[in-house]
Design a protein that fits this description.
Layout (H helix, E strand, L loop, with lengths): L1 H16 L12 E8 L2 E5 L5 E6 L2 E2 L15 H12 L3 E5 L11 E7 L5 H7 L4 E2 L9 H13 L7
Parallel strand pairs: 3-6
Antiparallel strand pairs: 1-2, 1-5, 2-3, 4-7, 5-6
Length: 159
């Protein structure tokens, strides 16, 4: 009986630890205002201000030349695809350990109104590759697997 209770407590603990805390997941929907490239865009935040969002775990090729960065293979296609997905749409944000990067962009996992997990969707369809930057690694294993499948199927930038 005592052993059964321990197992039950362990199952409950595992279940509850998998649920993101309210501070990590926003239930708010934000209007997308501008697409920068295949992994970065702007929203109108709750203060009615523009806020730059950088997708966690995702690296899309550069879509424009800036500074020392050249246009990357499949960069323009990645940006166009993200524009098709986000223009005129609202998104929900989920955060990981670090909410901002060194450029003061908000780091987020992003969900579309139809439930699509945008970060994973871009990797799965070959519009971005996996880029893991600790401590934001919640979905790193999933992203690596999706990239492997996209490469095997020669999707998007893996053609």
């Amino acid at each position: 009986m005592l052993k059964t209770q321990h197992y039950l407590l362990l199952v409950i603990f595992i279940f509850l630890s998998a649920i993101p805390s309210p501070s990590q997941t926003s239930s708010k929907w934000y209007q997308v205002s501008k697409i920068v490239d295949g992994d970065t865009f702007w929203i109108i935040n709750g203060k009615n201000e523009n806020e730059k969002i950088r997708l966690i775990g995702v690296d899309a090729p550069e879509s424009r030349k800036s500074g020392k960065k050249e246009i990357g293979y499949y960069g323009k296609e990645s940006k166009i695809y993200l524009e098709q997905l986000l223009t005129g749409k609202k998104v929900r944000l989920e955060y990981d350990v670090s909410k901002y990067d060194r450029y003061k962009r908000t780091l987020a996992y992003v969900y579309l109104e139809n439930g699509t997990f945008l970060n994973a969707h871009l990797i799965k369809n070959g519009y971005a590759s996996t880029m893991t930057v600790p401590p934001n690694v919640r979905y790193a294993d999933q992203f690596v697997q999706l990239q492997k499948e996209a490469r095997e199927k020669k999707k998007g930038l893996w053609k």
